[in-house]
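Purpose: get a first structural picture of the assembly so the mutagenesis plan has something to point at.
Setup: two entries, given in the order below. No constraints added.
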Amino acid sequence: MDWQAFALTLRLATVTTAILLAVAVPLAALLVLGRSRWLPVLEALATLPLVLPPTVLGFFMLVLLGPRTAVGRWITALLGHPLAFSFSGLVVGSVIYSLPFAVQPLVAGFGAVEPALVDAARMLGAGPVRLVLTLLVPLARRSLVAATVLSFLHTVGEFGVVLMLGGDIPGATRTLSIVLYNQVENFDYGAAGRTSAILLGLSVMALAAIYSSGQSSRRRRA
Amino acid sequence: MLELALNARRGTFQLQMTCSLASDWTVIFGPSGAGKSTLLRLLSGLERPDHGRITLDSYMLTDSATGLWRKPGHRHTSMVAQQHALFPHLSVAANVAYGLNHLDCAGRAARVEEMLNLVDAKDLAGRRPRDLSGGEAQRVALARALAPAPRLLLLDEPFSALDGAASEALLGRLRLWLRANGVQTVLATHEAADAFATRAEVALLSEGNLIALGLAEDVLAAERERLFRRLRSF
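Result (structure tokens, whole complex):
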């Protein structure tokens, strides 16, 4: 068992999920409450990674963050090293790739909050931040749990973007999915089975967390 | 004094209204679809008019000519909607306190107690909205709307879930309190009993237009006369 890859995968998933929630909560609130005619374009961009092949996304990001573009040169100058083939690069790639898995459940959850409640909060002086924190998030907490778990799991199981953008550097970019790929390539099916079992176990536990939160909220309502 | 000159189109429906509401208690009366709720939403700031202006005691709320539009919550205006809209995840006391962020903890608690006493709901403070009856929920919604000390109170069919006696008692006490605290009230209803039972200023609304405005008995007499004329013309 490659514990270094296991720890790196959990670290990547945790950091990515934290960043995703910080980005997705305001973005979903904007998509639900906003009135701009550009919002459908914004929603399409936020959903795009869902339909884009991960290797294509990884390739675009590799080029964008590489030394051939102004963005890549600026980031390299800022950090002192290129983002590609680094843990930070993997985080950026994972955030973009998993964005729809955080935004979509939140859009559904926030959108299900009764408009009359939003109107009442606005009448009582709630600005956008208070509206989100005191009304939308508590009332859509199951969607928040779903967004958290899906973002985490999606990052844990990510392969295409990681391989294209991060390569296979032990301790820096080698995640469990890469380890599994290497094990299968080396016909080490026993080790591959153990790695797969760990990935499967993580998925089952996380999904159980979603459904148990749903059951407890149903019990509270009953 | 509430002065308005409004023009708002919503699909095929158009609300056009120019008037001054001087009474401390004005009833907007009209059938469903007359534009009562739209008018209240325009006054509250939840919707913007296409053109027009609204002033409350010389305080400009909306003026399309200058582009001024004060957000809901910045208009000294509260509204009680027909469906109460109590926050289901908060207790009754927390619901009433929601609009009191500008007060410290002690001030908030005192104000919540005062408002719940006013609507006979002190015993409900710890309950959740799901544990309230329709009438209790309406009283709590009223307390929540009054808590921030608005200058204008908008009521959209607010007493539909209360029984007759309870509604009358609450209404009497409420009107005294509102008058004492200088709160102008605009109540929208399609119930003739609510509109004409009290000595109030009545604005008669039909298909988005103001048909009559005046004391209840005068508006009722004029409307009766208008209906008779229409009947005779057949």
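The longest helix of chain B spans residues 216-233.
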